[in-house]
Design brief:
The protein has about 260 residues and is of the alpha/beta class. The chain is built from 10 helices and 11 strands. Strand 5, helix 5 and strand 6 form a beta-alpha-beta unit. The longest helix has 14 residues. The N and C termini lie far apart (about 100 Å).
Length: about 260
Amino acid sequence: MTRPDTPRPPRKSRPQKGRPPRKGGDRPDDGAAWIWGHHAAQAALNNPKRRILEVIATTNTAHALNILHPSLKIADPKTIDSRLPPGAVHQGVALRAEPLPRVRLEDVAKPAGGVLLVLDGVTDPRNAGAILRSCAAFGARGVVMQDRKSPPLSGGLAKSAVGAAETVPAATVVNLSKAVTELNERGWLTVALDGEAETALPDAIAGHDAVAFVMGSEDKGVRPSVRDACAVTARIPITDGAESLNVSTAAAIALYEWSRGRG
């Protein structure tokens, strides 16, 4: 005798593994990133190397910046707020764009000449953005950063850079110590900035036309392995009124000192 089929209870859906979808944020799920603020957005729109996926702006800002991108959508400030990380000061405009093409070390270091900045552990987007802004102001060839320990060239960094994230080449490397060694071999004077160094910065770079300043994070400074790879360690002379300088301030002073007398 056959048993009659009995209905089975409905199967419970299992929770999906992985991260929950993000609302807004600097890095959307498709790998693109948000850029906001007048100067940062306009520089990105003017950069032929940036692939813009979406632009949202208020009516007034779209007219003021003369935004003609085909993806432009008019939105109110609250709608723009909802697409961005909390606290993002967008000034009425934001855009979503793919990352810039990767820049290699040799792209900024060959041939030797001018000034470079090597950032070791500078992870704060505002500091990194301010450094890029100083690089643009003093004509630096570019910056060198570790690929996995540096902020993206978008979001808060782009806002702080005031457009310089689109104009200053940022090379990424896997190993900073090896990158510094390669710069030495290519004819660059690599200078690790350290407040405890005996040599003052002006003396360290005197007579050199190809200088790469190596800047460390404010809490740890330049890592020993990276500092050991540098040709020179130097300090910025300051009074006892302050224990140290903010890394972006130190970068600006170093760039100014190098540019002084070089036109």
